[in-house]
Input
Amino acid sequence: MLSYVERKFTLKSTTNNDIRNLAIIAHVDHGKTTLVDALLKQGQVFRAHQQVGELIMDTNPLERERGITILAKNASVSYKDVRINIIDTPGHADFSGEVERIMNMADGCLLLVDAVDGPMPQTTYVLRQALQQGVTPLVVVNKIDRQESRPGEVLDLVQDLFLELATTSDQLEFPVVYASARDGYATLDPDVPGSDMKPLFDAILDSIPSPVGDRQAPLQMLVAALDYDNYLGQVSIGRISEGALKLRENVSLLDRESGSTIQPVEHLFVFRGMERLEVEEAYAGDIVAVTGPEGVSIGDTIASLENPVPLPSIEIDEPTVRMTFGVSTSPFMGKEGVNCTSRGLHERLTKELRTNVSLKVEPTSSPDVFVVAGRGELHLSILVETMRREQFEFQVSRPEPVTKILDGKVHEPFEILNISTREEYVGALTEYLSGHLAQLRDMRYDDNGYVHIEYKIPTRGLIGFNSYFLRTTRGDGVKNSFFLSYEPMEGDIKAQPGGVLVASERGTAVTYGLLNAQGRGETFIDPGSMVYEGMIVGAHRREGDIEINVCKEKKLTNMRSSTADVAKRLNATVAMSLEEALEFISDDELVEVTPLSFRLRKMELSALDRKRSRRDGGRSRD
Output
């Protein structure tokens, strides 16, 4: 079967000169969404004097809270009577599946590179994906307004990257535009600031090819994204490769499992600005949204009834990290959430598979527990947070790497870890990473007092590293990692010393009980919090767990004390984010997630059951 790139040049085709399909790709925090804001504001999308704010494309509340793009999204702008379809993509490695699935909709890519940082690990990954799909690159060196920008050096680094990744000689010739997305201008000379985005718009029209496709050929459209509308139902988004799609006609839906089914086209939309405009007909080369076909999955083909030929499906790299999602077995189950059943949990995870192509869900021996695998800790934690906001109540385990058996040996995923921080923190980071099987590959110093280090490290060695990195560097550092390969599993991770404080009975935590707990270690809860037996209420620095009664109240007596009026104050409670909680727990612990809160707990809530499990585990090892 021919690839998309081969099909593009072997079919008898015509070009649609009034359309450009462009994907914007970059490393995280290099300014993609800010650049899209500038293009939308200057591309005749909004009315004059309309207040639109910033981060226009980041419509998901989680995206705005975290300041990152999670889902790829479509918009369009008009320039010189040409419609430019823009696809904004995530920059974080955990969401690179979004980049892989939408790249087949684009004819060109706008590679955004920071004028200070230069090409970063995710820059390499997304550019490789783009060049393998045969799209035409256009390089934009962003943030040239910063004092420490070095556009000349960065361009040299970008050229080296193209030499490494290019699949054809034509890809080594690429146009370059310099920009300040924040200030809303682009220029062809980094020493001469521009006044608007016209140089970038002109470069897009001149260098990005028009979409190719035969309007008279039988219909073919690959579904690259899915949406849902409460009124219209399931929405399928993709690019028409060949032919034309007409409203209220029947089409053939081709999937990999059930074959071909006949489905109606009830509504047909094209993208205009940030909105969807309903049309009667759309042609080859356009990106459309279709309603009517049901049961569609990403990678399916919508084709004509007369000649139902499927397009090559979307290939997505495999997940590397997994964790269990299970029905809550907490004594407080059902008090804060609405969706608490295994059936509801399974349906929600199955629904997520339709749109989250880099996710995998597998059943376990228990009907109440499912194994969910994704691209990284952040990828899975975003899913947990999204479900929590949908009133789900469940419990999850600690993330662990996805292993494979190859040639009779256990293989695990390895990643490349890049760190940039001050020299004073290098010693502590190196000591931690050496205990987590990291291998130093490169180290260099820059003129600003920062050290740039590259490690090769197994994925299991990175689990829990994020919170340690933030604490150690006090926020003065940047780290990035990306998947390298599967290699044989060797060595053990050095365990961090310490244990947890476990509540010994159910009740309400009081100040007196928490004071006793703080004599042993740090606490995670405040007075007045409801606790149950087996719930983790704190941590200490010694080996093993300590059971403690935080509900214990001070006994009243008729004896007076000279210090009776001295108020006793609790130390500050340790507050964890969801990601920190997932990194903190060990293999015999869980995070209980509810719409209002999340709690740390033991898998076995009863102290007697935990003692029995430890005894049985010791016997099995003997």
